[in-house]
């Protein structure tokens, strides 16, 4: 448990930031899952349409430090590769 005044303030701050980080991460996973589901069904046009939203969620998460930039690049690359694999 935090003892000093500064540690208590840092704890409150980290709890507030945690909410925003979880929200950002959930948006990321939901958008990627949606594109993956469309890829699995073979709906290439719909997957390409939702790819922009997934890119936006990935980039925002990387910008805020929720995921690292290389992880973001890898996720985007794998999504595009999976879409291109659809006949």
UniProtKB/TrEMBL annotation:
<keyword id="KW-0699">rRNA-binding</keyword>
<dbReference type="Pfam" id="PF01649">
    <property type="entry name" value="Ribosomal_S20p"/>
</dbReference>
<protein>
    <recommendedName>
        <fullName>Small ribosomal subunit protein bS20</fullName>
    </recommendedName>
</protein>
<dbReference type="InterPro" id="IPR002583">
    <property type="entry name" value="Ribosomal_bS20"/>
</dbReference>
<dbReference type="GO" id="GO:0070181">
    <property type="term" value="F:small ribosomal subunit rRNA binding"/>
</dbReference>
<dbReference type="GO" id="GO:0006412">
    <property type="term" value="P:translation"/>
</dbReference>
<keyword id="KW-0694">RNA-binding</keyword>
<dbReference type="GO" id="GO:0015935">
    <property type="term" value="C:small ribosomal subunit"/>
</dbReference>
<dbReference type="GO" id="GO:0003735">
    <property type="term" value="F:structural constituent of ribosome"/>
</dbReference>
<keyword id="KW-0689">Ribosomal protein</keyword>
<keyword id="KW-0687">Ribonucleoprotein</keyword>
<dbReference type="InterPro" id="IPR036510">
    <property type="entry name" value="Ribosomal_bS20_sf"/>
</dbReference>
<comment type="similarity">
    <text>Belongs to the bacterial ribosomal protein bS20 family.</text>
</comment>
<comment type="function">
    <text>Binds directly to 16S ribosomal RNA.</text>
</comment>
């Amino acid at each position: 448990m935090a003892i000093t005044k500064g540690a208590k303030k840092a704890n409150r701050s980290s709890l507030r930031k945690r909410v925003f980080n979880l929200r950002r991460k959930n948006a990321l996973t939901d958008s990627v899952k949606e594109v993956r589901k469309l890829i699995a069904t073979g709906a290439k046009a719909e997957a390409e349409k939702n790819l922009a939203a997934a890119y936006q969620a990935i980039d925002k998460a990387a910008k805020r430090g929720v995921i690292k930039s290389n992880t973001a690049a890898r996720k985007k690359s794998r999504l595009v590769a999976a879409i291109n694999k659809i006949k």
